[in-house]
Amino acid sequence: MLRRRVIPCLDVKDGRVVKGTRFVELIDEGDPPELAARYAAEGADELVFLDISAAPEGRGTLLDIVERTARRAFIPLTVGGGVRSVADMRAVLRAGADKVGLNTAAVSDPELIAACAARFGRQAVVVAIDARRRASGVAADREVVWEVVVKGGREATGLDAVAWAIRAAELGAGELLVTSIDRDGTGSGFDTDLLRAISSRVEVPVIASGGAAGPDDFVAAIRDGGADAVLAASIFHRRIHAIAAVKQAMADAGLAVRLASQAVA
Amino acid sequence: MTRARAPRFAIVDYGAGNLVSIEQALTSVGAEVVRVDRGTDVGRSDADALVVPGVGAAGPAMDRLTGHDLVSPILDWIATGRSYLGICLGLQLLFEGSDEDGAETFGVLAGRTRRLEDAPTLPHIGWNQVERSREHEVFTGIAAAADFYFVHSYAGAPRGDSAPAVLATTTHGASFVSAVARGNLVGVQFHPERSGSDGLRFLSNVVGLVAAGSPQRLQTAPASLLA
After folding, report:
1. β-bridge mates for residue A127, sequence order
2. How far is A98 from chain B (nearest CA, A)?
3. Residue-wise pLDDT tens digits, A75-123
4. Which residues of A fall below an 8 Å CB-CB distance to B?
5. Which among B204, B163, B206 has a CA at the least distance from the CA of B184?
6. What is the ipTM of this complex?
7. Which of A227, A240, B39, B120 would disulfide-bridge B73, Cβ 3.0–4.6 Å?
8. Could you give the CA distance from residue B59 to residue B49 in angstroms, rounded to a whole number?
9. Cβ-based neighbour number of residue B54 at 10 Å
């Protein structure tokens, strides 16, 4: 049976892992390949790097970090942030990433999703959607609406997040990484309504992001939100919860997870 | 007398993406690794085994392999019974063709690459159990139904005389073939290079088998990596 995945996320800025609250107030959390290797050893099912460097030199550093990580952690690696073209994607994959996350660039140019999927296969294309609950506006079949925001949550787009998710999957996204900007960094739990609104309407796997505080939140993202995978940062970086403890809690709740490999003599 | 050296694995580079992981994984279990990106380099590589990685659709992959003059050398390599490891697309290409885009592929194994049936999510992405249909040295030391990492929407469906090659199956909706072996040909739908310690163990077993088939080469991978 396919396992539900637990994915530590490493926000990388100028070569270091950082984590803020609602994309600001960044705090240094360590060396990316080192943290990646630690998480792989602790049972992470995958890793996500989000490059939040503003300057171009930060991106050169990123490719080096991706390669150093790929040589140390033998689990899948997704790299997002600043990928704007098929050529950018090729460079990141050649450096050792398995998948690339597209966010702002895909909103600006949705055909980029199709171009990247045609070149590298849809399984390598993760479309990251940052969504914010809207106080007003009611869609025909929902009580709540979410708006896509870009540039780290600083810019609203007017796009409906659920409609955009469906479109992205149709264009060739192999997975959707859905982040609740309202919950990100707050520890108030995943937005399971948002997750359910999207996961019930697409065939591709949905990765839940934004708001994890404890093991119960991971279980809720899957059970209530319909997510296939759950992503978190701070609670792992700060060792508030161990990956193994989260996965054990998920197993205890009846979810299929990959526990430590059992090598035989 | 020939001095013993590590078995040499040639990884076919046809622009398919990440080769760092498979290169590093094979190196870490004792193989010597070279990349080949032209057909003429396959024979010159002095390799003991050929690795065809890759993800995505068969059509574009066949186009790129053809563009690099790699199809005939790969077919010759397999036809002469030399060691071949196909990973993901490198397994699917062994069949006659793919339903994904109608591409004609190597035709080494009878059967076609088909879309996963009744899958609750597609692509099939993540860790899933590999259930062995029969025992084989590539799984030595790996627990029954161990988890390996998958990322694909299609899988090869053997038929006729290729059916006995089936080594393992996996279930996502319906059951599909996740590993095959016939002679020196090994193909896996999962990614051993991304499957943690069990994946490394699998690759170590493959390296050991290749070494055993090449007596002048080292017989075993470094013991420390098998822990």
Report:
1. A102, A176
2. 6
3. 999 999 889 999 999 999 999 999 999 999 999 999 999 999 998 899 9
4. 1-5, 40, 45, 67, 70-71, 74-76, 90, 93-99, 118-124, 174-175, 203-205, 228-229, 258, 261-265
5. B206
6. 0.91
7. B39
8. 24
9. 27
| A144 to A147, A158, A197, A211, B68: CA distances (angstroms) | 10, 15, 10, 18, 53
Q: Which of A29, A41, A28 is nearest to A72 (CA)?
A: A41
Out of A67, A96, A123, the one facing B152 most closely (by C-beta) is A123
C-alpha gyration radius of chain A? 17
The answer to whether residues A29 and A35 touch, using CB atoms and an 8 Å cutoff, is yes
Partner-chain contact B123 A45, CB within 8 Å: no
Type of residue at B86: G
Place of tokens 């399984």: A123
Residue contact B126–A204, C-beta within 8 A? no
Which of A40, A31, A35 shows the shortest CA–CA distance to A6?
A40
pLDDT higher than 70, residue B2: no
How far are the Cα atoms of A90, B37, B108, B194 from residue B18, in angstroms, in the given order? 9, 14, 25, 11
Number of Cα atoms under 13 Å in the Cβ half of residue A109: 10
Nearest CA in chain A to B194: A75
